[in-house]
Structures are given as structure tokens and as C-alpha cells.
Specification:
Layout lengths: L2 H13 L13 E4 L10 H5 L4 E9 L2 E4 L12 H14 L6 E7 L3 H12 L3 H4 L4 E7 L14 E5 L13 E7 L14 H16 L4 E4 L5 H10 L3 E4 L2 H9 L1 H4 E3 L21 E7 L4 H10 L11 E6 L10 H10 L20 H7 L3 E9 L3 H4 L11 H9 L5 E5 L12 E2 L12 E4 L8 H4 L2 H14 L5 E7 L1 H7 L3 H25 L2 E6 L3 E2 L3 E6 L4 E5 L5 E2 L3 E6 L8 E4 L1 H10 L5
Parallel strand pairs: 1-2, 1-9, 2-4, 4-5, 5-6, 6-7, 7-8, 11-17, 11-18, 12-24, 13-14, 13-17, 14-16, 15-16
Antiparallel strand pairs: 2-3, 10-21, 12-23, 18-23, 19-22, 20-21
Helix pairs in contact: 1-3, 10-18, 11-19, 16-18, 17-18
Keywords: Hydrolase, Magnesium, Metal-binding, Phosphoprotein, Signal, Zinc
EC number: 3.1.3.1
Enzyme class: hydrolase
């Protein structure tokens, strides 16, 4: 016997005695096709949650071998060793979950079934339970003979033309060759005429009350997703581990926006060569180009953000790593210098850096921060604090007390007692002037998702801007949409889209004010991209898309920067994140 197959057998025999196996199935069922060809038949598919597992069987010398052809038979690779014994151990231990064993007969039906019936009599723990189905495929008897077999035997029916005549009580599922209906290879999109044929045959099976499977079908991520959407009940795959991971996360990666948001179309009436009075820097935490694209697709092809005409791309690496965190990314934008990850407002040696808020304070500017994060979050604190560790919240709050921040809007009022001597806490309706250093809170603790808070953040931003426009001083605002990043870390595509749409509503409020006063430079970018997000498929008409993720961490990909208002053209091109600081000062005709 080959060493490779000997190892397979040893592994299976060991695993068959394990009673503590815990497996899970996704909401989409898949069928482990050609399971005998896996490195570890049965176990790989079962552990990864397969609902249906295929065993190709050939009868020789009254023994049922697992093989595709007689020539490939190996003595110890039997149906009993590879499938029935492991199933039996799981059943006896009470660990067997609902599973379908599809036995694909490669030898003549009647003699093979006769030996199978005899063999299964030795396993009453398998034939008398609801969790296991034995389904005969391949060389089957005629459908008129289905009734001659015991209740624990059912059949994989492969003809949709005679469902009215067939004994449906003996049919476990209906399977058809995909190639009868389409030549699609599982990449791109299936053509409309072929899609119609595919959907029709699935419907015939479902109208008969039976689950459906395609065999000979494309075996790609795109195909798995399409088949899941079409309602294929058992998705055929030779890659059970990959299919399991993909299908298990599919619902969390699918997005459908039923109610698109309105889009503001800016007027572009400003003098592009004039010096701006006000600066608004908007940072979507973790907001890469794919994230923006996903929200645009969900919103039927438009965002307020995508109306802007000046565009740059920003390199995001920190001083000590190719991939930045929010602390180093925020510090680069706030101070114009690279620093180590986790450092806030300090250089690579730990020395304090001068933030743009400190420079502008000396020029008579009001400095404000508005964020859906805590005020001590890495991005907002980069604009006022000087600490080498982003988690040192107490030191960050001490720096906030002595900072040049005149007001802020943030989550987390529970920490306010630590800074209440320096900031007057107000409700939004009470925030009408800038005589006192003021704090306004969105929540007591961490802010919830958009589904909980609604239009809260755009509304707060709108009110703050209204108040700023009613006074004479120039102002600098840092406005952060912080929750895009959180949903990237959890690989929640719908959450990403919802948070970007909330950020886009906020952008609309900012651009309305910029259009009204015609003297505000708006810079919109991100500190980094989170999750390696990609758009796998979707359609604009329905606002649907499927996202994919490389990681649950940050990446080093460049992020887009959009600018609007006087001197917006300074931000075109490709440059380091530190340039944002320097170009803002250049737009204001200031030096560091």
C-alpha cells in the first residue's frame, strides 16, 4: 500500500476514536464532491461543516471500496474504514450532527446495493437515527424500484422531466450537470440566457419540494456566491475548507442598501487661488478606496464625496513600520513628521512635536475636534497630545487640559470628570458661543453603530458649523468618522458601508458651509486602510455588493484624498501623509 494512503488510514482510525469533535455548519450547505480524493477523506469535510459528503464506491469481491475506478482500488480504503466507522463513533458518542452521506455507485447498482444493505445492518446506530441520511447516486436503480429499498436509503434523482411520476418520498435531492445549462467557468458573470436556464431547473426541484445540487459546476468563490444567491441547496465543491470559510462569512460580507441617501452637489463658486480663511480636515478612519467604492455602489453609484474634482493619493507608512496605526497616521497629518506606531504627537525619539492646532492657535484660530470616537482616541488626540503610548489615556487627558483645543464633540462622557475643570460640558442645544472651552458628548460610553444613532453625527456637525459661521474668528476643525475602521477590523461589510454613508452625510454638511462662505478649504482623507477590503461583485441598480477581506488589520495601501475650496489643487498628486500638514500651511501662506 502507498505510504500516502497508509497515513490517511492511520489518521482516520485515530480520529474515529475522538468523541469531543465540535463542528459547525454555515447557513449555506455545501457538498464535498470527490471526497475520497481529499488528503483526509470524510474528516476534512466533516470538520469544516460539510452538510453532504460524497463517497465513490466500487464493488469487488463482495467488498465496497472507495475509488473512482476498479483500477485505482487500494485494499484498506473501504467505505467501512473511511466513512462508516468514523460516523459510527460520532453517533455513539452523541456528537454526530446532521449529515448526508452520498454514496456514488461506480459498479452495477443492484449487486452493489445488496452488499451495502448487508453492511449497514452492522451499523444500527447509523440507520436508525435522524441525523444521518444515506443517499444513493451514480449507478442507481430505476425510479420505479426506489420503493424496494428500506427507509434509511434514499436516492439522488437526476431527472427533472419525470418528477410528476417519481416517488418523491424516496428522493433526497435532485442533482443535475451544470454543463447542461451553462458553459460559465465561475469567473465574471453568467450570461442572461444561461442564467435563466439555471434558475429554471433549480425552481423545478424546489417546486417538487426537493433540495438541489449541480455537479460538474465551477468551483470558485464567485460561483459559490452565485449559487448561494440562486438557492442551490448543496453547493458542490472539491475544496471543503475554503468553501466553508467563504460561505460561513458570506452573510457578513453581503450588503444591500434599500434606502439610498441623498447626495449634495457642490457649487465650485470659490476662488481657487485665494487664501482660505478656515480649514476643515476630515479623516475617515480606515477608509480606503475600496471602502469608498462600496458605499458608492450601495448608494446607486453616487456619493457627495465623489462629486469632488481634486484628488490625491497618500502614502501611509509610519516611521518604524510599513503599516501604520492610527496614532502614527494621525500624528503625521497633525505635525508633518513621521513617528513610531503607538506614538501620539512625539517623534521617533519620543520628543514632543508641534501640532497644527498649536500653530493656528497663535494665529487666532479656533480649534475644534469632532469625532465618533472618544476624545482620547488615537486620531483626535494626535492633534493635541504628546505621549509615546496611545493607551495612556490619563496622560492624554492631562494634555487635553493644557491644549489649544477650544471645543470638541466626542463619545464617552463618563470620562468627563477628569477634565471638567477645563471644559464646560454642554448639550448641543446649549452650544451657541465659544467664550468657554466646551465639550459636547454624543454618548456616555462608546458610540453605537449608525443603526442606533441615526443622523446624530451629521446633525451635530451641522450645528457646530452653524455656530462657527456666526462668529468672526477663523477656525480649524478635525472631523473624524472613526467607526469605519471598527467595521473593517470585524470584517463587517454592511457596517463599513453604513459608516461611510454617515461620513458622507457629514461631508455634505461641511460642503454646504464651504459653498456658503466660499473661503473654507476642505481636505478629506484617511489615516490608513483597514482590512484589505475588496468588492467581489454586486450591482448598482439594487445597491447590492459582496465584499471580501484580506485581513482584520490595517494595510499599507495608499488612501485617497479629496479636497475642495481655495488652494484645493495643492493636494493633487501622490505624496506622504506628512505632506497634508505642510500643504495646509502652504495654503494658508504660513510656515511651521
Amino acid at each position: 500500500m502507498k505510504i500516502k494512503h497508509f497515513k490517511k488510514l492511520i489518521f482516520v482510525l485515530i480520529c474515529s476514536f475522538l468523541s469531543g469533535i465540535s463542528t459547525a455548519q454555515s447557513s449555506y450547505q455545501f457538498h464535498s464532491h470527490n471526497d475520497y480524493a481529499q488528503e483526509f477523506p470524510f474528516w476534512k469535510a466533516y470538520i469544516h461543516g460539510a452538510s453532504s459528503i460524497e463517497a465513490d464506491v466500487f464493488l469487488k469481491d463482495e467488498e465496497l471500496f472507495v475509488t473512482h475506478t476498479e483500477e485505482e482500488i487500494e485494499p484498506n480504503l473501504t467505505l467501512e474504514n473511511l466513512y462508516l466507522k468514523p460516523l459510527s463513533e460520532l453517533a455513539k458518542s452523541g456528537k454526530l450532527r446532521k449529515t448526508q452521506l452520498l454514496i456514488d455507485l461506480k459498479s452495477s447498482a443492484q449487486p452493489t446495493l445488496k452488499v451495502l444493505m448487508k453492511l449497514l445492518k452492522n451499523y444500527p446506530e447509523l440507520t436508525k437515527i435522524d441525523n444521518l441520511s444515506f443517499v444513493i447516486s451514480g449507478n442507481r436503480p430505476g425510479n420505479s424500484e426506489y420503493k424496494n429499498y428500506p427507509d434509511f436509503i434514499q436516492f439522488d434523482h437526476q431527472d427533472v422531466s419525470n418528477l410528476d411520476e417519481a416517488d418523491l418520498s424516496k428522493i433526497a435531492l435532485i442533482s443535475k450537470s451544470f454543463k447542461e445549462y451553462s458553459v460559465w467557468n465561475g469567473l465574471g458573470r453568467i450570461t442572461a440566457p444561461e442564467l435563466q436556464k439555471v434558475e429554471e431547473v433549480i425552481k423545478k426541484a424546489h417546486d417538487a419540494g426537493k433540495p438541489f445540487r449541480f455537479w460538474g459546476a465551477p468551483d470558485t468563490k464567485t460561483a459559490w456566491s452565485r449559487f448561494a444567491a440562486m438557492g442551490v441547496d448543496f453547493i458542490n465543491t472539491d475544496k471543503p475548507a475554503e468553501a466553508s470559510a467563504y460561505l460561513e462569512s458570506l452573510d457578513n460580507r453581503n450588503v444591500e442598501l434599500k434606502d439610498p441617501i441623498s447626495v449634495y452637489h457642490p457649487k465650485f463658486n470659490f476662488d481657487k487661488n485665494s487664501t482660505p480663511k478656515n480649514i476643515i480636515l476630515m479623516i475617515g478612519d480606515g477608509n480606503g478606496l475600496s471602502q469608498i467604492s462600496s458605499a458608492m455602489i450601495a448608494n446607486r453609484g453616487e456619493l457627495t464625496l465623489t462629486q469632488l474634482q481634486n484628488l490625491g493619493f497618500v502614502k501611509t507608512s509610519s516611521f518604524d513600520d510599513l503599516v501604520t496605526d492610527s496614532a502614527a497616521g494621525g500624528t503625521a497629518m497633525a505635525t508633518g513628521e513621521k513617528t513610531n506606531n503607538r506614538a501620539i504627537g512625539t517623534d521617533a525619539e519620543g520628543k514632543d512635536l508641534v501640532a497644527i492646532t498649536e500653530i493656528l492657535n497663535e494665529k487666532g484660530y479656533l480649534n475644534g475636534i469632532l469625532t465618533t470616537d472618544y476624545i482620547t482616541g488615537a486620531t483626535p488626540s494626535s492633534f493635541y497630545a504628546h505621549v509615546v503610548e496611545r493607551d495612556d489615556s490619563n496622560a492624554i487627558l492631562e494634555d487635553l487640559k493644557t491644549s489649544n483645543i477650544d471645543f470638541f464633540v466626542a463619545a464617552g462622557s463618563s470620562d468627563f470628570n477628569k477634565i471638567q475643570d477645563e471644559f464646560v460640558q454642554k448639550e448641543l442645544s446649549e452650544f451657541n458661543d465659544f467664550e468657554d472651552r466646551t465639550s459636547v458628548f454624543l454618548s456616555e460610553e462608546s458610540l453605537g453603530g449608525v443603526e442606533d444613532r441615526g443622523n446624530q453625527f451629521p446633525t451635530y456637525v451641522q450645528k457646530v458649523l452653524q455656530n462657527l459661521e456666526n462668529q468672526e474668528k477663523p477656525y480649524f476643525l478635525m472631523i473624524e468618522g472613526a467607526k469605519i475602521d471598527k467595521n473593517g477590523h470585524t470584517n463587517n461589510a454592511s457596517g463599513i458601508v453604513q459608516e461611510i454613508l454617515d461620513f458622507d452625510k457629514t461631508i455634505a454638511e461641511v460642503l454646504k458651509v464651504a459653498d456658503k462662505n466660499e473661503n473654507t478649504l476642505v481636505v478629506i482623507t484617511a489615516d490608513h486602510e483597514t482590512s484589505g477590503f475588496g468588492i467581489m461583485q454586486g450591482n448598482l441598480e439594487d445597491g447590492k455588493l459582496e465584499g471580501g477581506f484580506l485581513t482584520n488589520d490595517h494595510t499599507a495601501v495608499m488612501v485617497p484624498l479629496f479636497s475642495y475650496g481655495p488652494k484645493a489643487e495643492l493636494f493633487n498628486g501622490v505624496y506622504e501623509n506628512t505632506e497634508i500638514f505642510h500643504r495646509i500651511l502652504e495654503a494658508l501662506n504660513m510656515e511651521k
